[in-house]
Amino acid sequence: MIKQLLAAVFGVALVVALIVAVFTLNQVRDEREDLTVDLEYRSALLAERLHVGLAPSFVTPTSTTPEVLQALVENLSQQERLEGLVVYDNKDNLLAKSSTLTDNLEAQSELARTAMDKDQAASAFLRFQEKQTYVLALPIRQNARVVGAMVILRNAEHIEAKLDMIWRDNIFRLLLQVLIFSAAIGLIFWFVFYKPVVNLAESVRQVRAGKRTPEQQPEKTPFLFRPLIAEFYKIMRSLSQARFSAQEEARLRLEKIDTPWTAERLREFVKDLLKGREIFVVSNREPYIHTRDGGALRYFVPASGLVTAMQPVMDATGGMWIAHGSGDADREVADKQDKVAVPPDEPKYTLKRIWLTEEEENGYYYGYANEGLWPLCHLAHTRPTFRKEDWEQYRKVNGKFAASILAEIKQIENPLILIHDYHFALLPRLIKNSRPDAQIGIFWHIPWPNAEAFSICPQRKDLLDGLLGADIIGFQTQAHCNNFIDTVSKELESLIDLEQFSITREGHKSYIKPFPISIAFAGTEDAGEEISPAERRQFLSSLGIESQYIGLGVDRLDYIKGIGERLRAVEEFLENNPKYIKNFTFIQIAPPSRDQIPRFREFGEEIKSEVERINKKFGANGWRPIVLLNRHHTHEELKIFYSVANVCLVTSLHDGMNLVAKEFISTRSDEQGVLILSQFAGASRELKEALIVNPYHVEAVGDMIKTALTMNPSEQKKRMKRLRNQIKTNNVYRWSAELLKAIVSLGS
Ligand code: ADQ
């Protein structure tokens, strides 16, 4: 807006300046002419008078001595206040000159000669003795014969001074005009355009946010915008009606269980379920991260299924999300209580940020959570590291989050709290001890290992006790629930009910239930996603790929994802099926993850050198069997990769669920493409129509790539259809609904 205003002011200033310049040039030209004519006229009269005084000195035989002539010249020059007077005889000899003339008189004598030759006055403006000077030469006649010449020099400085003054005055006037015009434009812009547009935008925003219904168009609207505002009010009323109908429809749909879950349906469901109660969500990663990008304040939503799952719930309840403030501009936008209203463009709920010191983040997040619990829960043969100092930080940070939550729920009866993931195993107990009336659920996104594997953890009893402070402990699969029950029975004194799948400890009962997480796919948003063969070719050639067959892997660069095994399976496949050489390319998207941790960094290096090794082995004539892309890709970008792949490989060594498998399926509205899926990913329990593999069995995975690439289109279609139906029915909106229903229905 400011830019447009400045441009308008600049434009007007330019036009005014041009007009003033043309006008001033004219004025200066006229003024110069007038002043010159005046000077010439006065000089001519003066010259006549001087001629009378000087002519007698030329009577021959001369009676005037050079001294007398000199005295006469000095005298006349002073009398008439001349810059100087010079007298020549008709042979160009200088006879006398005023003593004030010190510079070279070449130009003057030239002018005198011209005057004598032509027998008429000659004049010029000259810069002489650093002054603008008017020089007039006149022939001196005796009896109609030219006997000499006199040259008068007159000061002409006043002409330039006058012209300078005209320029100065006009420039001053110009500045004044620009100032007045700018102020006028600014005021007009503000009151006639900006204010009405801002008011209109605010009305539209409020209607869009559902904060008010569009009443009649206000009587007093600026004349200029009247037609536009009338149209806007019509659109707003339609929007409001459409929203009302959508809500009604969603409410009706709640009754029918066979329709897919959508964000709208979830919103309505949650409103109905919670009846005005607010929800408190806790996670390590925040849903909005603010950063400074070269001076500009920006925010982004981190790529995670969690935000998709929770956003409609938060929209509906207007609750609070408590998370670690990790953005470099997070503090700037938070208020004194560390809170910020989000989504930033259309606030619906509160994000409360918890600040962690570097020591806390290193110990709690990188140390205990990611070097301890992550490898402990994933059976991927990376040894967990349990450092005493990390554990202390983990406890401290869980305590810090607990204190913050307890302060927020102080005034709320039966507060509803949903905690996410392995970063907060101690939190349910810390809250429950202070607030037994709180309804607490925790969802463990990663696998729960078997009891024996878990038993190596020195802090296992504290972790289990911490988790058992929750009313509901959710896992991705039934197998993880079973492992958890076994672990508790082995480690803690408690009462286990296998009918209800509950654990009672010190009088408090926790239910253990599977809630397989999913993605937003509702099966209605897929129209138009298909990619034509020409677009596919063009996209691939932009990556330097000419192959006909494409394999794809999309993972964080994490040792649990089985990327190394997958690359060796590709190697095996090419070795056994040489006709695919130059005809098949495997694209691996793997941006670095948690690379402050040495094992994660080393893993990145291992993958890079594996790719180099295999590419060296098979690569020829510009073709490489593996293309490794290690920058972060947005979900939109990933969709294109999913669409062009003939086969997608998800070969995790162990994985809670794996959303990449589901995202690949949701993108394939063409019902083509094959998913190869690890039996150790939670997703394999639901996605039965995928080609299920043991990722450690590299040869078998290699053979499965061949099976996938040779699968006929009708078989692909049959499998993909079933896979898509499975995700459509069990999408993330349903996941949120089931989880909340379970927590709420238990009571405290
Ligand atoms: P993650 O281990 O991070 O999550 P996953 O479920 O595969 O694994 O992916 C999460 C999201 O990150 C997906 O939306 C995916 O698109 C995105 N993603 C993954 N790799 C990416 C890449 N290379 N570039 C861009 N985006 C990428 C943890 C558990 C999982 C569990 C989820 C959700 O480890 O088992 O499924 O939480 O509960």
UniProtKB/TrEMBL annotation:
* Record GO biological process: trehalose biosynthetic process
Task: List, in alphabetical order, the Gene Ontology terms for molecular function in this entry.
Answer: alpha,alpha-trehalose-phosphate synthase (UDP-forming) activity
Q: Look up the coiled coil feature and give its residue ranges.
A: none
For this protein, the record's CDD domains field holds: GT20_TPS
Signal peptide segment? none
Record's keyword terms, sorted: Membrane, Transmembrane, Transmembrane helix
Q: Which Pfam families match?
A: Glyco_transf_20
Q: Where are the transmembrane segments?
A: 6-25, 171-193
Under the heading InterPro entries, the entry gives: Glyco_trans_20
Q: Which family does it belong to?
A: Belongs to the glycosyltransferase 20 family.
Q: Which PANTHER family match?
A: BCDNA.GH08860, TREHALOSE-6-PHOSPHATE SYNTHASE
Please report the name of this protein according to its UniProt entry: Uncharacterized protein
